[in-house]
Amino acid sequence: MSSAKDDWQTPDCVLDRVRMIAPIGLDPCTAEDNPVGARWFYTPEDDGLSKSWWTKVENHELIYVNPPYGRGIGAWVDKCREAAKVYDRVVALLPARTDTKWFPWDADAICFWRGRLRFRGAPAPAPFPSAVVWWHRGYSRQPFIDAFGDAGKVVLL
Question: Considering the domain 12-156 in this protein, what is its CATH number?
């Protein structure tokens, strides 16, 4: 299944849980109106893949990524991995396409969301399952478990 649109905005039910972990310091792939409410953000025109992410956040904040879901998603997941090596809190909302090369089995925890998400502005729920992914580089997994434990199945890796 595919869509002409690849930049669906995160639903509040996910953002509310992400914010339970920590404030969002950077959203590297958002719209001009920054619906995530991150302190720093990059729009498609800014090309968030070409920017440094960890220099924009303070040590109590998260980097939150809901990348475009097209063919370039693997580059966004790679950038999440890269950021997590330098900064300890990266959360991404991704399609749960566990059979792909880019799927982040190297993350620290994954919540496989129960049911289908309805992205902001979408006329219907997504035609695919979703996963919220946590890279924490030694940071406690408990905040992620507390935030997402009842939203789906949390797997610790």
Answer: 3.40.50
Mean pLDDT for 132-149 is 92
Q: Lowest-pLDDT range, 17-21, 55-59, 89-93, 152-156?
A: 55-59
Nearest to 19, CA basis, from 37, 42, 41: 37
Provide the residue type at 137 as one letter. R
The answer to whether 125 and 117 are in contact (CB under 8 A) is yes
The residue type of 113 is: W
Buried b (16+ CB within 10 A) or exposed e, 58-85: eeebbbbbbbebeeebeebbebbbebbe
Q: Where are the domains of the chain?
A: 12-156
Write out the two tokens for 35.
């619906």
pLDDT digits (tens, 9 = 90+) for 111-136: 999 999 999 989 999 999 999 999 99
113 strand-pairing partners: 152
Q: What's the confidence (pLDDT) of residue 35? A: 84
How many CB atoms neighbour CB 119 within 10 A?
21
- Name the pTM for this structure: 0.94
33 burial via Cβ count (<10 Å: 0-12, 13-18, 19+): exposed
